[in-house]
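Lab notebook, bench 4. The sequencing result for the construct came back, and we need a structural model before the next group meeting so we can plan mutations. Quick request posted to the team channel:

Model the 3D structure of this chain.
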Amino acid sequence: MDFAAYREVFPVTQHGVYLNNAAETPLNTRVRQRLEEYLQVASDAPQDKPSIRYAVRAALSDLFGGVPEDYALVTSTGMGVGIAAAGYHWQPGDNVVLPADEHWNSTFPWLRLRQRGVDVRLVPPDANQRILPEAIAARVDNHTRIVATTAVRFNTGFRANLKALSEIAHSAGALFLVDGIQATGVIPLNVQEEGIDLLTCAGFKWLLGMPGTGFLYVNPAARERIEPVMPGMFAADNHYMRDLHYFPDARRYETGTIAYSLFHAWTAGLELLKEVGISNIHARVLELTDRIITGLRCLKANLASPVDCLQERSAILAFSVGSDAANQELLEKLQAGKIHVALRDGRIRVSPNFFNNEAEVDRFLEAI
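Done. Here's the predicted structure in token form:
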């Protein structure tokens, strides 16, 4: 696979070393061109703007499984989690089980359920920053209605065993919800093979879109248990004005008008993912993170990410060079050298993508 050819598609490569894809993948030329095409039509003949709702759903199902009708278009990961959390038929005594200290979008909607009498059970990571299936299973019982997790933790890059977690949820009769924002587009994932009932994700990270794009996958079993909470004109049959006749598919969770320009542009990003191949992208980021891991160990940095088990690795690595103050100083030094990483939970977080190369990794390590 000639990954070098794709560097030209990402102009950011001309302006420094960008290793912060877990925050946001830079806009690529194909998505920008499609955005500009849409804006031109909107300027000259808005009545001719392309219809994109089904096209995006079809592209998503092609990449992640299910059928287009299983996908609702939403604006963010948090919106998808919030719809599921608010729309479930919670009863007194019900509980939801999820890892502790997940991203705010995967935490706040569940914590709010405490106001409705739901027992929100948080499972902390172990000393090695891992959330093992048996730790989740220990908190699941016959009153558990949803087991939720991120596919990859944003602060350490730990990759969850989704298949094992789905089996735990389903054995208790619960739904299994996954926040996939740090996995979809960089790690092969199929909703049916993994046993995922609900998958939510924004498009602006590894899915090569922009902020304001996203999806919520809801399979038929979950649609029977999750009610729409903010139905708009695209959630129901508009032949009826005095009664709600929801669509039988995931469109029932959609609200009103979305940023069509951004979703239209996103189709180019989804096409690029299919062209490159997510399995190829995954193999490539493992090569680059292998190089980073080796370099950090030589530098005696303290790796916080679990990396000994390949199945638990992702495109994210977190490390420390001593103290929070030392990490902050290093971050500022890297930024001054146009090497872009992030600081999460006081640690340096580095996250390469397929357009990065070995020379950039080496420049990053040399700067440390």
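The first helix runs from residue 29 to 44.
Will bring this to the meeting.
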